[in-house]
Task: structure prediction
Amino acid sequence: MMLDVQGLRTGYGRIPILNGVGFAVKEGEFVGILGHNGMGKTTLLRALMGFLPASSGRVQFAGQDVTAFEPYRRARLGLGYVPQGREIFPGLSVYDNLRMGCSKQSGGSESETIGAVLQEFPRLRTLLDRLGGALSGGEQQLLAIARCLCGKPSLVLLDEPTEGIQPSIIDEIVETLERLRETTRMTMILVEQNLDFISALSQRILVIQKGLITQEVTPDNLHNANLIGEFIGITD
Amino acid sequence: MDLFVLLAIQVLYAVASLALISVGLAIIFGMMRVINLAHGEFLMLGGYAAIVATSHGISIWISMLIVAPIVVGVIGIVVERTIIRFLYGRMIDTMLATWGLSLFLVGLTTAIFGNTTVGISAPLGSIEIGAYRTSAYTLFVIGISVVVLGTIFAGLRWTRLGLIARGTMQNANMAAALGVNPPRVYAITFGIGAALSGLAGAVLAPVSGVFPTIGVAYIAKAFITVIGGGAAILSGTVSAAVLFGTINQIATFVTTPVFGEVALLGAAVILIRVLPQGITGRFFRRSL
Result:
């Protein structure tokens, strides 16, 4: 197992958000996590990354118990994070943002790593000198994914990459992620509300409701409107 | 003509010394947003470190350029690890704690060295400019501040540590998600800021002498320069130092040193009124 989560509970202060989440992800899998606002999707990824301490439960990553690890140690073990809101360094150039992505790299050359990653992101190649804060939302999203890949992660956590992005770039993001899935067999967890996006990419989809994983569905099932209503709680 | 050269050297010296006493603060306040009220005492400790090392037979150059920054840099890292790191984001608490540290350091140095001015004579002798003479050490101070500023620029612009420090100051959580250990970056950055202050205090020690409360003379000017400079720590510090140093020195030349200080403070008040974000809030915005 690449990632094994058992009984994970966490929250903000005394407000519980996750109430015992458990799931596992195999190497090379692309898993979607679906749920509407306030169900704990972002909280789950933040907890997996180590930004929120687990009040109980266990997170195992690449064979190690990382439950008590700080974010930077999880990152160095190969966990990659593309956060909600993208979190581009606004005062650094696009190229320097990518160099930040290389910061855990010990050997080898930064420029080689960045050059290889840019192969997948033609749009960024013309923007390297621009400040990160001056990019459009879609360009920032591509940059956030590229920056994450510069760290050569074995598991990538993607938090709502389509939020607030113009449709033309959403297609580009889907194509890029599909290509990466095919060529690198990288393991990914994608948190989304956009049904088309999540079903286009995921091999299986976990539904999160009120801080618990309640269902697992296949992407085909997502086109069944009744099921969706039931799973996401629109009909109740 | 000779007089003009002399005046030019003195203006350059005023600018250089202002930049020198401010760069350490520019890094600690400008980058880390820590209001370090013990900044003047870091300069003072640099002066004492150089004087003590020199009196133990170490060459004055090594004392000033190597011993003082290392000693104060280590003190800075200890201060960050024991006091500052608990107070990030708590501005008032940080001010209180560093003010307390400042009083402590003044008391400690008074107890050890006494409340008297100690000095080392400036090396290098003097040079003649036509009918006038000026200390060659003045030129050395100008040169060393050019070297220091150039090194900081190169470090921030081209080294990995500089990039990681800039990224971490902009968004520590994201940096951590990319594998950077933010507490370590904070400690190192604070240490470098302290080391630069130690260097500045040591380089200026032969000019001004050192006494336990000399920090008071430095700290207001350093804060004025850094705040007047604005967000870009390096070009901000340099441009504010050029502006304030020139005004100070020309006013001193025309009238008296006291009025020179008044002119500097007046210029600072007007600048902050006109450009509340400092010089680099309006100009050179993309610079470091």
Notes: Chain A has one domain: 3-232. The radius of gyration of chain A is 17 Å. The longest helix of chain A spans residues 167-184.
